[in-house]
Amino acid sequence: MLKAPRFFDDLASGQKGKVGELFICGELLRRRFHVYTPVYDSGVDCLVKINGTYKEIQIKYCDGRTGKYAMFQARQFRPDPTFFFACHLASRRETWIIPSRVFLEMGTSVRYKNKEYVRLSIGEEGSSSYESLRHYRDNFELLKKGQVTPVASPVPLKRTTARIAGKHFKQDQIELEVLRILQDPLQQPLPAKEIVRLVGERLGSQFGPADLARVNGRVRWEVTTRFAIYQGLKKRGLIEAGEKNRYSITQEGIAELGSAGLLGK
Questions:
Q1: 70-90, pLDDT tens digit by residue?
Q2: Which residue of 30, 45, 67, 228 could cross-link 59, Cys pair, CB 3.0 to 4.6 Å?
Q3: Do 12 and 135 share a structural domain?
Q4: Is the domain of 140 the same as that of 233?
């Protein structure tokens, strides 16, 4: 395995991060992107201009010294089609250009020093996590594709979501189903992956074409379920994550089921 340069041993974490930012900006320039950097820390490390429109990029850097897994962590964020992560693993000379929605969907929600983060791990080549993200490895061309919108201001005042055509399960419906799963003492605590599987098992016969449509490589009902867990139930305090991010229902969650007339069902 390739190793990160030895001078990294003498650098503080902030210095390593800055080296990573400059490296990615250099790679973008080498590929003839027009690159712009902000004058203040807004969670965006650089912008690339494409045909008069912009993509926002947050740069993450891992030297690979902590083991065979690359781990990238970001403060909780709202995904957007114009927002990407550029994750560079120095030990393998790999850069992953990952849409923010994919980073959120495939990452794990963690809490550290009273702050919420999303953590994404990429295993060794051949592992399920690596293969599910392979499409994004060194795929700088991805920044030139997909829907883009001009940057109107440093902090967008409002984000809009396209209306979904056809009957489908909405997030609030999925949230109640997750609570129904977790109200069984024998079913908790559960990791998010298992919760998603059980939702599919219980509701699969009712899924329509809109539920089964693909969104960034995943079917919509899976995306909705993950949002229900991370952005809905957990943030509202209806479920909580214990050791290894295994989820349990809270007293507030039980009360929510009671209000919906679903307690014990």
A1: 789 998 888 889 999 999 988
A2: 45
A3: yes
A4: no
Query: pLDDT tens digit string along 116-167?
Result: 889 898 877 777 778 888 889 999 998 987 543 333 333 333 333 444 556 7
* Tokens of residue 76, six digits: 């909780």
- 75: containing domain: 6-144
The Cα 139–Cα 219 span in angstroms is 22
Largest CA distance in the chain: 62
Q: What one-character DSSP code corresponds to residue 165?
A: P
Task: Report the alpha-carbon distance of residue 64 to residue 89 in Å, rounded.
Answer: 6
Q: Pick the more confident residue, 170 or 4.
A: 170
Contacts of 108 (CB under 8 A, 6+ apart): 118, 119, 120, 121, 192, 245
Measured in degrees and rounded to the nearest 5, phi and psi for residue 115 equal: -125, 145
E strand or H helix that includes residue 43: none
In this structure, are residues 85 and 103 in contact, taking their beta carbons and an 8 Å threshold? yes
Compute CA 239 distance to the chain's CA centroid, rounded to the nearest angstrom. 19
